[in-house]
Amino acid sequence: MHPHLMTSTRWKPAATVAAIVERDGRFLMIEEETPEGLRWNQPAGHLEPGESLLDAVVREVREESAHDFTALGLMGVYLAPAAHETYLRFAFVGTVGQALDLPLDEPIRRVFWADAHTLYAHRERIRSPQVLACVNDYWRARRDGTPWLPLSAVSYLFPGEWPQSLSSFSSTSAVRR
């Protein structure tokens, strides 16, 4: 075993979600107050106890951008070490409706749409490398015709919940050990 793994403390990355929403070549972005000053990010945030990943991304988009979010698929999962914490980001692709008349979360200063060129031109304002990694992965998938992972790839098992049966599998498709 590697020496740094032989500790009594278990390493736990912070689980976060992000919404990747593109409309007419521009991405839904928020500008937020951070300890480093104003930074740009996709609507994103931490998973709360008892919350599914899908519930979390819908909540974060509503709180940070005042839009209702409809997830279409899971674009990717990003493990990103930062100064004092490591983040595990689940990025969902989706759509939003019209802006709602709701207050924004306290650190959010504004909601805006920006194309990839603008984001790269102002990279010093980007909150983390994950923001641009998501933009790159979005355009790469669109260019290559790669589908998003289906939402069925993301499950939330309630405490004490167990799958009931293998009834949805045919005998020819079941995996045998």
What this model shows, in words?
The protein is 20% helix and 33% strand. The chain is of the alpha+beta class and 177 residues long. The chain has a single domain, classed as Nucleoside Triphosphate Pyrophosphohydrolase. A four-stranded mixed β-sheet has the order 5-1-7-6, sandwiched between helices. Strand 3 and strand 4 form a beta hairpin. The longest helix is centred in the C-terminal third of the chain and has 16 residues. The N terminus and C terminus are likely disordered.
CATH class descriptor name: Alpha Beta
Look at the structure and give the mean pLDDT.
Answer: 89
Query: How many separate domains?
Result: 1
* Count of strand segments: 8
The helix/strand order is EEEEEHEEEHH
Helix content: 10-25%
Unreliable residue stretches:
1-6, 173-177
- Structural class category: alpha+beta
> Which range does the strand content fall in?
25-35%
- Our count of helices gives 3
How large is the radius of gyration?
Answer: 19 Å
- By CATH, the architecture is named Alpha-Beta Complex
Distance between the termini: 29 Å
CATH topology: Nucleoside Triphosphate Pyrophosphohydrolase
Largest sheet features: 4 strands, mixed
Shape annotation: globular
Physical arrangement of strands within the biggest beta sheet: 5-1-7-6
CATH-assigned homologous superfamily = Nucleoside Triphosphate Pyrophosphohydrolase
